[in-house]
Design a protein that fits this description.
193 residues; alpha+beta; 8-stranded mixed sheet; 4 helices; 32% helix; 29% strand
């Protein structure tokens, strides 16, 4: 009888912790739903202007105005940011959970971006297959999991833009909850390649 009680107790604890983890994953997904397109706007660089091709002033102006249907290779699986990402913020921000999950790109439809799963084509050194298939290819993005403060009113996550070998940027994206909606507070460059 005592073994049965212990087994029931352990099962109850396990089920409770699974339910809590699912709730925190759902919470994190909801936060990303609020900020996803703003985060893409804030961290995506137009590959055509970033890689230093020689364009005339007229061509540069045309590229800047051409903001519709830019193709973005997006790594649909988030990740836990490296330890040094939180340097200086270790005591303020913590992971809500350690579950890695996938973004559903269809939820984030936009006239500005055609979001493609980065697994669609090989990610080679110079991304030629992407550039050949999609003339408006702007590069790739990866978002880490969100690290929240204790009250879950503020957060930070890492965004990585990549455009080839020795071509990319890293960002720390600070977010804040205001009027029950999450907004981007600040985007800080953390590295450049």
């Amino acid at each position: 009888m005592k073994i049965l009680q212990i087994a029931i107790l352990i099962t109850g604890i396990f089920l409770t912790s699974c339910h809590k983890k699912k709730n925190t994953v759902d919470f994190e997904k909801k936060v990303f739903d609020d900020i996803f397109l703003s985060a893409v706007d804030s961290t995506l660089v137009d590959l055509r202007t970033y890689t230093g091709f020689q364009y005339s002033e007229k061509q540069k102006d045309s590229i800047k105005k051409d903001t519709l249907h830019r193709v973005v290779a997006f790594n649909i699986q988030n990740y836990i940011a490296p330890d040094d990402f939180l340097a200086g913020n270790v005591s303020k921000y913590k992971l809500a959970n350690d579950s890695v999950w996938n973004f559903t790109l269809e939820k984030y439809s936009s006239l500005r971006y055609l979001l493609k799963d980065s697994n669609e084509l090989p990610i080679t050194d110079n991304l030629n297959e992407w550039k050949n298939k999609y003339p408006k290819f702007s590069g790739g993005l990866i978002f880490s999991k969100i690290y929240f403060d204790e009250a879950k009113e503020n957060g930070i996550f890492e965004a990585t833009y990549y455009c080839g070998p020795s071509c990319g940027r890293g960002y720390a994206v600070y977010i804040k909850k205001t009027n029950n909606k999450w907004k981007i507070l600040k985007v800080k460059n953390t590295w450049i390649s």
